[in-house]
Amino acid sequence: MGGWWPALAAAAEGLTPIPFGSETVVQLARALAADVYVAPDTTLPAALAGANYDQYRDFRYRPDQALWRDLPGVDFQAQFFHRGFLFKPRIEIHVVEGDRARELPFSTSLFNYSPNPTPALDDSTGFAGFRLHAPLNSHEYLDELCVFLGASYFRAVGKGLAYGLSARGLALGSGDPGPEEFPVFRAFWLHRPEPGSTTITVDALLDGPSVAGAYRFQIQPGEDTVFEVDARLFPRVDLAHAGIAPLTSMYQFDASDRTGIDDYRPSVHDSDGLGLLTGTDEQVWRPLHNPSSIQHSGFQDRTPRGFGLMQRKRGFDDFEDAEAGYEKRPSAWIEPLDDWGAGEVHLVEIPTADEYQDNIVAFWRPAGALKAGSESRWRYRLHWTATKLWKPGLAHVAATRIGARPGEDRSIRLVVIDFEGGDIGTDAPQVEVAANIGRIANPVVHARPGGGWRVGFEFAPDGRTSSELRARLHRGGAAVSETWVYRWSA
């Protein structure tokens, strides 16, 4: 082991296996938090320091060297990422077998560098991260299932899906005026799966200037790939605005948000809405927005039942992009496993002029600060899914469209919301619409060709620059749809 943290300096030398238990990483995180922060080593060997993006892409792991490739009955394999380009920190990779752990040694023989020459590197070079493969779409082939690479970022796919949004271990300062802090998963422990097992366990050690943490991921691939996450945090300083279970995505435009867009495609995004299932059992849908300046939205709650950044559009004709395949990007749904108390689901929307920058962040922000020297635990399931409907009996928002109302006063907006599915019945429901600023006029609901219900109303902002809009279908006072909420901005 590298011994870059004091808690492990005397634990082992070389590649000798050492004892490992369920509390080992927790003990390491607790010891790290009690000591002075030491930044990870980002110094690259000379042979890697000048590698550009194209050269780094040529550093390909050899599939025939995959971890567990030759284990009979084991349906998981691991491959590893080279250091270089943007991925400079040396990340320790350990393999757990039974109650012992050993560090996985680096070697250039694990990689194919062609057409570049094989660099002269020793076993201290280490790795940048890893990916797991499993039989996701068929039993005959091991698909790439998930990736852990860069800071505390990771992402995964369900059956038939492709990579899109990412998750993180922790968010600190996302969208705030000051610099954002990016803690790093500095070491991983990959548990060798038992033959026939449908899940795999990964432990991770988080470290940053403000906090250390121990994470356990129990990963099960499938139609929905599910991560069961157990995160234990040990702050070095008071964390007043910690982001728990953060998700990071991209939203550029859609039918509700095309001002200034000159693009042949009808929409471009990895996610089109924030979904909420509140502690009072209200299902909420908040369409995403590409604002002109950074927007923060807080949805206060107690004991939340779930939240996520969702991609509801699933047809090629929703995007008309044969290369990006946005209709195959997964949704990510967070399901707390404990009482998370009071706080808010916090949404950050950052302006973007293109589709290459992640500009959307969502996370749980506890009402109280995480105090220095304390320990907090956050357990949740993370579903990577295409079809998650947390209350299928309610009609859900299928599309939001906003444009100028025909007529002389082009400041008046015409808002159209399509609802689909649920046990809504055949008789037209009633609609309730509200705005905290401005005026609502002429709300109507009628059957939509092809099925479902369409809500339309006029919104007059009265010269104001923003307003919170809200709509819901009901029958006899009982909700028959989820609640649509939207921040309109000029």
UniProtKB/TrEMBL annotation:
Its annotated pathway reads: Glycan metabolism; osmoregulated periplasmic glucan (OPG) biosynthesis
Give the source's domain of life in one word. Answer: Bacteria
The UniProt record lists the keyword Mitochondrion: no
Q: Where in the cell is it found?
A: Periplasm
- What keywords were assigned to this record? Periplasm
A Pfam family matched by this chain, by name?
Answer: MdoG
The name on file for this protein is Glucan biosynthesis protein
Is Acetylation found in the keyword set?
A: no
Query: To which protein family does this belong?
Result: Belongs to the OpgD/OpgG family.
Q: Which residues form the Glucan biosynthesis periplasmic MdoG C-terminal domain?
A: 20-488
